[in-house]
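Workshop exercise sheet. Pairs work together: one partner reads the sequence aloud, the other fills in the structure field after running the prediction. Swap roles for the next sheet.
Pair: D.N. / O.F.
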Amino acid sequence: MSSADVAVNIYRKLHPLDVSLLRAIELLMAKYEYVPELQIAKKARISLEEAQHRLKHLSKNRLVRMWKGAYTGYVLNMAGYDVLAINAFVKANVLEAFGKPLGVGKEADVYDALTPDGKRVAVKFHRLGRTSFRQTRRKRDYVAERQHISWLYQSRLAATKEFKALKLLFPHGIAVPEPIKHNRHAIVMGIIEGAELYHYIELPEPQKILMEILNNVRKTYLEAGVIHADLSEYNIVLKPDLHILIIDWPQYVTINHPNAEQLLRRDVQNVLSFFRRKRWLDASLEDALAYVKGETDTVKAVEIS
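Structure field:
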């Protein structure tokens, strides 16, 4: 069971004081490796006895982790952080109920959910703690400059950056999920239906789909001034209507980034290599890049027999 499963299943059973204790731990983790239970009780403004009782219950349900040494202390588990984000969405009248998982990956869990007015949405919980700290710092600009950074804060930064990207892109009509709300390490966005391209053995109308991908990369570059910087068959979703959706934007850069040219080239190369590897289509990288940059109006893609 994932941490989000734990959080979703237990959230409605929690007392408001339990949420207050989780919030107190979150705030105090900036000062303590393990937050003393006395400090948690003071921050939550409840008696030490009641705090101790509730903290043991939260620990049993995997929302916090207890440590015993010179004192008894606690830190949030990822499920506890999930609860705080879910609580913020519920209080903001954004979420009403959760459905099934839409995807569980190395760096995020995505769930189907409903708003209070019955609209289907997706909720994405970032999970950067699943990759090594050194690898995450190397790959992601927004953590590379920080020497010491918690997994929770890394995930929060990733969500913040991705939500900013979606807010930039969606108004331009680019095929991305609609950004709805962001809190901590989680984003509520338009529903994601379909499957990533890598799942497909055969592809209906590969020429049409490739051009739709390149056209969206072009609009992203020319109209929004943005480059995905991690584009591949793993984050291009083919929807039931055979249109695409480009997801996973926390590594985006602007066209003014010093490595913009290299990152754009890699994005386009990844897409073309996938279509070539599947023996669907072959297209020139230089032609595709010229199209994406607005230097030409077409890309010649040849079917592979």
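Discussion prompt: Residues 195-303 form a domain with the Transferase(Phosphotransferase); domain 1 fold (CATH 1.10.510.10). What would you look at next?
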